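User: Show me sequence and structure for the first protein, then do the same for the second.

Assistant: Starting with the first protein.
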Amino acid sequence: MEILKSINTWFWNDYVWLPPNITWEHIKDTRTVNYAQFSDLYYAFQVALALLVVRYILEQFVFSPIGCYLGLKPKIPKKTDNKVLEKAFCENGKIGYKQVQGLAKQLDWSERRVERWIRRRISRGKVSTLSKFTESAWRFTFYLCAFCYGLYTLWDKPWLWITNYCWYDYPHHSVTNDVWWYYMLELGFYWSLTMSQFMDTKRKDFMQMFVHHIVTIMLLSFSWTSNLFRIGSLVLVIHDFADVPLEAAKMAKYVENQRVADICFAVFTVAWIISRLGLYPYKIIYSTMYEALLIVPMFPAYYVFNSLLCALQILHIVWTWMIVKIALRAISSKNPGVKDLRSDSEQGSSSESEDTAKGTSSQENSTTQRTS
């Protein structure tokens, strides 16, 4: 216990996390100012669990029926009708033509029948479009609600319009109930995304999204603890703005409504450029790297916050390049229309098996043609 206390004292050093001549005792005294407290962060875990429950209910009883009504099919249950083929599929992953011949002889099946079984088995292993639709529907719902609530919360706050107010009289900033709930909901949401990411559809930018969630959680937690929630709330509103049309575009793409998907993607592109490449660097990063220097005495944690904010901007640039690739592909493609670049990354065994099935089928066809 003494070691843990020593580590805690060393990590939460006043000199590191607070401006000069300010201690943790100053911002723990809530008699005159309602300061943000480190203990508040525990509520974020409870919010995360509650959001996971709400998400499950909405996906099962609201989003799934909507998706089915729009023509999407639920995922086929993972059942097998042949233990021999199932064992070979799971153990080897890649089933070659010679193995198909051997399995056909073992089961007294035709090779074509074995190939059909492999293709059906691969289809059962894939993530259904309905699952991706419900995931995007959940994120769309939350981002839309969070953005509207964030604007409602911050509309009468002076730091929304003049970022200098993020630093005036820092760290003696009182947190109101609406800002408290806004922060806890956002922090809980990113905790829930981090927990569920390993169970959701695997996408090409899985690691980038994971890093994004971790960096966001660190920023929210440290900014809350150090009473930097004003600049943190601005970061949240800016981030939620572009995510709303992005998830709407994905939902439209999944239900194969290309026209709506294109419109939503165009709105998303404009919103992204305005928020992530405009407001974020020129309002947030400019305020933290220039305005704060003129108002607040610097302290080591300031550089930690700025590093995390700059890390987010690097991710924005990476994602901007991905957006440009989607736009260029949509313009130059013979079949115009945007595609979801964050597509599923299927398991290697399934992809290889599908290629094998196609290869054995074509090989059988060519052999038949040569014989005839």
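Switching to the second protein now.
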Amino acid sequence: MKVVQLGLRDYTEVFAAMQTFTDVRNENTEDELWVVEHLPVFTQGMAGKPEHVLANSDIPVVQIDRGGQVTYHGPGQLVVYTMIDFKRRGISVRELVSRLENAIIKTLAAYGIAAAADAKRPGVYVQESKIASLGLRIKRGAVYHGLALNVNMDLTPFTLINPCGYAGLAMTQIADLITPCPEMAEVADTLTGCLKEQLG
């Protein structure tokens, strides 16, 4: 599984690249993990309801083709896009989601943070606060989009939305839980290692 480091990128260009990669891949295409940070953006899933965007701002709202409602991406948030042929790996989408959540939980445990999944809603939580979000799109036996882990970012834009459609959902991040906060590159290495372990 190839790890591709994209750095800080505009959301729309990476979204288009994900769609192209998925459209042209075949049974021999190597699975990839795309590691990226985004410039500030709200992304609204296919079933997204406009009322979950609570206030106007200068942050763009981009309609996209993953499941779920609205979320925020910005610098200091670690995003990993899972460009994976799940059928070839012999796992279900539900199992894939569980493995992604487990990789995040193991990553946080490496920093002494106790986190858990919630059977009623996707993502990873530290007590009642959400620290990581998941959203996937299935196409041609493969998935794209992926996960977002809050590392050391400005969480304020989350107050302008109902994160993932949940009113009043508190968000947290690694920087609020441990001092000093590890560097983004270190967290990315830990997370991609856990993802490879879970998906291997």
